[in-house]
Each structure stands twice: as structure tokens, then as C-alpha cells.
Amino acid sequence: MIPERYFELTAEDARDSYFTDTSKLDAKQLVHDRFRTNPLALHDHLIRALDLRGTEELLDLGCGNGEILARIRPYLAAGNLVAFDIAPAVLEAARQRLDGVATPCEFIEGSADDLSDFAGNSFDRVMAIYMAHYVTDLQACFAEVRRVLRPGGRFLVATDRPDSMVEMYDVHFAALRDMDAREDLFRATPKARISLENGAEQLAPHFAKVERVDWQDQLQFGKAEHFLAFYRSCNYCCASSNPGPGEALPPVFFTELEDRVHERVQAVIDETGYFALTKYTGHFICS
């Protein structure tokens, strides 16, 4: 079971630790694409939800390395794109990824709860893809999005169900229990802050219509090493991102944790042929 209590990471935490470069984001994106079993990739679901005509002006909040924006760009060849992120390193990666495309692209550093750089009614589409849980003031963010969104526009928020990828939590918490780890490490990741279960009630005060769209995928790993690379990119289910009170956890702690998780994952692969992570995910379409 995934606990209700979750790690709390601010946008500044993410900027100053998790996104000092794009390595962890790159690794997660590679795994989600390489090991998925759903024939539709993330960007396929998003393109359907955005309902583009090709000329829209789009704001990507928390654009990261620009991977998703680059995949959506061909559907906005005659539009305009604004990539917005609080972390300079990943924003620069997005700039490089989109360098030379004919579609006008602008890259702006800032926090998603302060969109004062933009006038009201500036965008036809705004999207926040698996990043809203980092935003310090979600209500301020949603109010700002409503302000900059044009009449008839859409705001797309992608997030997970709280029980998404429960198999990773199972092996993670089992390993922690075997190590007699301290109680405050038994927490969910910050995505629980705004999920498919609680997101609509947070968005409803700002938008006339909030539609929830669920979809499912499963990542299947034939080798434990590939799962472990993903597990590391998730900061050991955030246990190494913000461990909470007390002394910082030493590297030897994570070496033992990883060894124990590897053993459990390998046992599943030996028995069934693969280790699966079931993704219960989706998005809200707000208008």
C-alpha cells in the first residue's frame, strides 16, 4: 500500500537538486518510452487532449528538457511556443532541442505561480505535464493560467493516480522494512499532492469545466538493471531527495537499499519473465 503521507519538495528544491542537469529526466523519459506496452506514447495522448488546429499559441509550464514540446511542435507548425521553467539547466536543454525549428519558440525562466511576464488572454493552450506537484502555490498558479488563457482555450494538467506504479513502492518499502529504516522514509512521492483523485477539486474554482481523462500503461522490464536505473532516476522514490528530519542518509544506505530492491525485482523476473510497473495515469482538460 502507498501511504497517504508524501515527501514535500518545492520548485526551488527541484531546481537546486533534482534538475541541476537533465540526466534524471532523460533517464525517466527513456524508460517510459522504451519499456511501455501501451502502443500510444505520452505525447499521443496529449495531442488528442490539446485538440490543435496548428496555429495556436501554447505555453508549456515546467517544460523540462523540451522532449514533450518537441514532439508536439509539428502539430503547431504555424503556431507559437513558449517554454517556461524554473530550472536554468533544463530550460537550456529545451532551447537546444528546439534550436533551428521554424516555429517561433521563446524560452523564459520563472515560477509557474507567477506568470506576470504574460498579459491576460495570451495563450490558446497551456499545459503542465507531470510538474504541478512542484509548484509552491497551486491556487495562484491556476488563477494565473486562467488569466493568461484566452476564451475557448484549454489548460491541460497531466498527473497520476495515487496508486500508480504501486509495484515499485512494494519492493521499495519491503527493502526499507528489511533494513529497519526510520519511519519518516515511508512516504509517497510529491505527486500525491495533486493527483487524478484530488486534482479536479483544486482546479474547479478557476475553470468552468474540468474533464478527467484516465489512461493506463504498463512498463515491463526484462532485466533488473533497467528497472534499477529508473528507480535511481526517481531518487529512490524520493527517499534521497528530501529524507526529512535527522542526519542525511549516507551513500552506504542507498547501496544496501538498491541491493535489496534488486534482489526482489530479480526474483520476480526469474519467476514471471519480467518485472512490471502498472501506470494509472491521465490528465485534466480545463476550459
Work out the oligomeric state of the chains in this entry: single chain
Order of helices and strands: HHHEHEHEEHEHHEHHE
Helicity range of the residues? 25-40%
Strand elements, count: 7
CATH class: Alpha Beta
CATH superfamily: Vaccinia Virus protein VP39
* Binned strand content: 15-25%
Largest sheet: 7 strands, mixed
Low-pLDDT runs: none
CATH domain fold name: Rossmann fold
Describe this structure in words.
It is a single chain. The protein is built from 10 helices and 7 strands. Strand 2 (80-85), helix 5 (88-97) and strand 3 (105-109) form a beta-alpha-beta unit. The protein has one domain: Rossmann fold, CATH 3.40.50.150. Strands 3-2-1-4-5-7-6 form a 7-stranded mixed beta sheet, with helices on both faces. Helix content is 37%, strand content 21%. Helix 2 packs across helix 9 (224-233), helix 7 crosses helix 10 (251-272) and helix 9 runs antiparallel to helix 10. It has helices spanning 11-18, 23-34, 42-50, 67-72, 88-97, 138-148, 166-178, 199-203, 224-233, 251-272; strands at 57-61, 80-85, 105-109, 123-129, 149-160, 210-221, 275-286. The chain starts with 10 loop residues before the first helix and ends with a strand. With 287 residues, the chain is of the alpha/beta class.
Task: From the structure above, extract its key features.
globular; 287 residues; Rossmann fold; alpha/beta
